Amino acid sequence: MHFPRNLFATAMHSSTRTYEGAVSVLNACVPVSIIKTSGQDLRRERYCRSLTYLSALGISEAQIKQLNVIHVAGSKGKGSTCCIIENVLRHLGLKTGFLSSPHLINVEERIRINGKPIDRGLFSDLFWSIHDQITPYTESSGIPSPGYLHYIILMACKAFIDQKVDAAIIEVGMGGRFDHTNFFSTPAVSVVTHLCLEHTPILGNTLAEIAWRKAGIFKPHCYAVVSRDQTDEVMRVFEQEADLVHCPLFVAPSAEEIMVLIENSNNQDHDKLTTNLASLCKSCLPDGTTTRFSNIELGLTAVHLWMQHRKGIVSDTIGLQPCPSIVLPQDSVNTALKTHWPGRWHKVYRKNAVYFIDGAHTEDSIQSIAEWFQSAWPTTGSGSVLRVLIFTVLGPRDPQPMLESLYRIVQPGFDLVLFLNPHPTGSVSPAGKESQHEHCLTCWLSLNSTGVPTTSLTGSVNDLTRLIAWIDQAPRLTRDCLLDFIRSRETAISTAEPSCNSYDIVEHCDTTTELCHILITGSLYLVGDALKALNEPV
User: Fold this and answer.
1) Which GO terms describe its molecular function (predicted)?
2) Is 246 left (phi over 0), alpha (psi -120 to 50) or beta?
3) What residue ranges do the domains of the chain occupy?
4) How does pLDDT run across 410-447, given as a tens digit for each residue?
5) Residue spans of beta strands (DSSP E) within 255-333
């Protein structure tokens, strides 16, 4: 990674030691480019350097061990699984710390105590305390100053130690083996969610390569658990790595098995209660998708293994283990089912619109979200609902397969598609986070060239804020008035060339529409902008 050459000067000229000053210095630490480097270099630059910084702060390995860390990697469902684990442990009466990535609106969201983001005063105090201790050390030793993610993990560790949390849930930033967070030598549990092809220029071009990166969080004689929806190729890598590092590896059981085992613990009316729990799952997750079951299965299994660790029950076997017999109180299951992680499977109801918001940014995730959105399509009176897609992807991701899934699953199709740049106009995009909204438009128009044309446009995040505000205030919402607003001088949205049929009216759309279903997905940056515009708590 390459950082700005004037990083130290930027820190020195961030005049006030306030929250705003801390954020300014942190933002100056974001790399201006990402360079693919060798594993040995990544090891030295990332988690080995994290250990060096922790030592400079006087944080010992014993203090880190007392955090009873649950370390979570994966491609899909990391944040939701972390949130389930944290929520269940907290409802069991335990004090929790939670480090997540990325934030949606404000950076302090990344560090949570008992489910709540730390306040800005504590965030500022943590940053400046660490900055003041680290700076003399790096100046005298010649070691580079911490980058953005190093600062965040150092702040989280200090906060969790100071607050004396019972458990710390740590979400990996990217990959696992060479991640900034991978310095925990004795985690209580290592967790890997579903894997798919992602960040291929950095993590590898095959699932096996990506699995090797993720399995880097497995540690000797420490519990490891993975979701049960992994491919055979991925599981082979996981089993090899578990054997190599001498750790017990578990596969999370199915939701049906977890329910049976939970209720078997102390209830004689087994069959009836199991049926009721299955019904409870369906009533809590009514949207026609099984994706979230995987996160719940994995999260509850991780909680079970964490409780085993806390009791001092350590497995003396290595490699793949039989499915664990999970015993959890029913309240824990209810808590898991009701867990809500902002920006994931997130519905917002307004007078004129229902917003379906999810930060899905892989083909698998987009397919699940498309099914979720499609399940809300009314079986009768479908002409009364206007459907809008707001989408972009960032960095080197290929939007084509994601858009193909949306085009195929959402039927009879979207009435309006907006591809927005989530970065403010004139700002410099973070390394690897450049918006592909214009490329998305090209891909979408190619899909539409053989079917019924959809009005397709590109624009900026400012347009999203204005659009949401206008939708909320509109006395009545129709397709024509929505398009009139978008085409007005009040927005900076530009349409595709007329030759692409960008203004053609979709025949199935009724111009008397009074309700709008809006799907916002493809990027957590875009999701954060939407939640901010909607004034949703995160």
Assistant:
1) ATP binding; metal ion binding; tetrahydrofolylpolyglutamate synthase activity
2) left
3) 39-338, 346-533
4) 988 888 888 888 776 555 556 566 778 888 888 888 88
5) 319-320
